[in-house]
Amino acid sequence: MNVRVVDYDPIWPDLFRTEARQMEDILKENLIEVFHIGSTSVPGLKAKPIIDIMPVVLSIEQIDERSGQFEAIGYESMGELGIPGRRYLRKGGENRTHQIHAFQYDSVQNITRHLAFRDYLRCHPDVCSAYAALKSELAMRYPGDIGGYCDGKDTFVKRVERDALQWYWKKYDAISRC
């Protein structure tokens, strides 16, 4: 897979909403919420032009049961793909345009880390800029090596994820006090 990092495109939220509507039609009453996650969900952040979508569902097994309906709109089901409890689907094969990371509602840790990371980047422009610079540098260094690109981001992402979770839970605690 070629690694291509591009400037933020204001059409990305619309591309997310289009796919989210299709997921609502497929998942119906099983769907709790669909979230736009990943770099394309952070205004101004450079990203690989792949829309990351996180449906949260009542029953993860229903994702498997409806794999034919996802295939009909262009998705390939990849199972858990390294994260227990997740269902990963991709659209566009090796030149993917969209990725689904579906979780059952009780996979709180996975759901929270995605939302906290996204929200932290949205609220911390300095961290967002540093992440954009790192992504651009790694894309130039590893243009044909997605593994090298991902490995290069790993330490930064883990540190930001840790900070983001602390920030997220402090923010949550502050608004949840009666």
From TrEMBL:
It comes from the Archaea. Gene3D superfamilies: Beta Polymerase, domain 2. PANTHER family: GRPB DOMAIN PROTEIN (AFU_ORTHOLOGUE AFUA_1G01530) (PTHR34822), GRPB FAMILY PROTEIN (PTHR34822:SF1). This is GrpB family protein. The lineage of its organism: Archaea, Methanobacteriati, Methanobacteriota, Stenosarchaea group, Methanomicrobia.
